[in-house]
Amino acid sequence: NMFVGEDLSVVGQSFLSDTSVNGELGVTGNATVLGNTNLGGTLNVEGATTLQSTLLVEGATTINNTLLVSTGDTTFDVNGTSANLTVDDGTNASSLAVTSTTVSLTNSGSGMTSSSGATTVTGTTQATITGGTTSMLVSNSGVNFSGAGGAPVRLSGVADGVAPFDAVNVRQLEQMDRRLSAGIAGTMAMTQLPTISAGESSSFGIAFGHYNSQSALAMGGAVRVTDSMTVRGALQHSSVGGTGGAVGLGWSW
Question: GO terms for CC (predicted)?
């Protein structure tokens, strides 16, 4: 054991075992600590430092070179370009790696990486992002949004879908509802066009249809070609700009 009541300065390689320093400790070369070391003052290390036991520093600590702390499979490595912390109990392992451009946090294959303005969250089985009472879960089954107690939540800010597998928004659904309603109104109008009156050979008519706030105008006619054959045709135009037509040919006997 070594006890130093004042400052201790070491130039060159040093090996310290069960050392207590109440003043400042300065090491210019490599320092290897094999036992417990207690420092009451400032620790300055300019070379590589390896700690294999307990280091207790009560004052300021300055390290100007590489720092490597290792206990079993758990390590803490700091050098001029990165800082890496790995905690490994033999079954599970977690690590934190930091450089000037990248931050990575992983645990058994899952984790988060941020680099060049992009952040990637990875889960080997699933990944969950939670804000307040709302959560988003990503797994092999897909993406699930839920609120408190698993209640459904509203997803806002969805752009109009373009590709076949894009999501649609309420605006697109409302547009589809208007078109469908206008088409129904047009069909209703076309069915109300009058037929040929008895004893006549042709007819022409106009009809109006309205359904679910949408309207359509239809016009058409019929011609009795022979006593047993009739030709009918109609056109309709709806309030949303859709135009449709139909032609029919029939026989009677």
Answer: cell outer membrane; cell surface
Q: Check pLDDT > 70 for residue 190.
A: yes
Using DSSP's 3-state secondary structure scheme, residue 231 falls into strand
Task: Report all structural domains of the chain as residue ranges with CATH numbers, in order of start.
Answer: 2-116 (no CATH), 182-251 (3.30.1300.30)
Burial class (CB in 10 A: 0-12, 13-18, 19+), 49: buried
Ramachandran sector of residue 136 (left: φ over 0; alpha: ψ -120 to 50; beta: rest): beta
The pair of structure tokens assigned to 181 is 């309603």
Amino acid at 241: G
34, 19 Cβ separation under 8 angstroms:
no
Angle CA 246–248–249, to nearest 5: 160
When pLDDT is cut at 50, 70 and 90, the band that residue 58 belongs to is confident
**Structure-token pair, residue 44:** 């300055």
DSSP 53-116: S-EEE-S-EEE-S-EEEEETTEEEEE-SSEEEEEEE-SS-EEEEEEESSEEEEEETTEEEEEET
Question: pTM for the complete prediction?
Answer: 0.59
Q: Answer for the pair 62, 39: CB distance below 8 angstroms, yes or no.
A: no
Instruction: Give whole-number Cα distances, 133 to 129, 130, 149, in Å.
Output: 11, 7, 9
Residue 216 has a CB neighbour count (10 Å cut-off) of 27
Q: How far apart are the first and last CA of the chain?
A: 123
Model confidence at 233, pLDDT cuts 50, 70, 90, reads very high
